[in-house]
């Protein structure tokens, strides 16, 4: 005859002969990975909201109408020390012209202007947005304007803060 043995005939932590044995502690990796993924997602989302993390920029204030037309653009930040950042990445002054030219070539092909005898290529649907610190030198700004002209980029926009928001921040 067959005897029925229970599936667990010893208490947890005991062997069949009744002696105690220690089970090695286990680390459950699934909750650990879940927590790490949540932290990673949080960090990825929070870093996309920082715009000029490399340079601290204090924009000048102005009143005007904001333009919300989507265009291809190069964002150039100029710090009060005269340092430059292109699309959030710090660039040395001697590499700035090459970087602007490289980014503008990724836009649509140049359109030829037929006005006057000398036809000049103009990059269409693209612009440069200059975010210069209020205390940045005019020479730094003019240098960027000159490089934009050399790259045949005719649309240049200066970023400012809204004058009303600046007044409300002052004590």
Automatic annotation (TrEMBL):
The keyword Cell membrane appears for this protein: yes
Positions of the UniProt region annotated as Disordered: 1-20
Molecular function per GO: transmembrane transporter activity
Presence of the UniProt keyword Protein transport in the record: yes
Membrane topology: Single-pass membrane protein; Single-pass type II membrane protein
Transmembrane segments: 29-49
Pfam families: ExbD
GO biological process, one term: protein transport
InterPro entries, A to Z: ExbD (IPR003400)
Major localization listed first in the record, in broad terms: membrane
Top-level taxonomic group: Bacteria
Protein name: Biopolymer transport protein ExbD
């Amino acid at each position: 005859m067959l005897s029925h043995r229970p599936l667990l005939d010893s208490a947890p932590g005991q062997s069949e002969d009744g002696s105690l044995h220690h089970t090695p502690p286990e680390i459950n990796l699934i909750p650990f990975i879940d927590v790490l993924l949540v932290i990673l997602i949080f960090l990825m989302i929070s870093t996309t909201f920082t715009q000029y993390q490399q340079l601290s920029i204090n924009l000048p204030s102005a009143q005007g109408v904001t333009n919300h037309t989507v265009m291809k653009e190069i964002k150039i930040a100029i710090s009060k020390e005269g340092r430059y950042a292109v699309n959030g990445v710090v660039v040395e002054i001697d590499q700035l012209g090459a970087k602007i030219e490289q980014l503008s070539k990724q836009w649509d092909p140049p359109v030829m202007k037929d006005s006057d005898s000398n036809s000049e290529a103009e990059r269409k649907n693209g612009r440069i947005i200059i975010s210069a610190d209020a205390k940045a030198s005019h020479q730094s700004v003019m240098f960027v304007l000159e490089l934009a002209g050399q790259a045949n980029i005719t649309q240049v926009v200066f970023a400012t803060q809204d004058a009303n928001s600046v007044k409300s921040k002052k004590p």
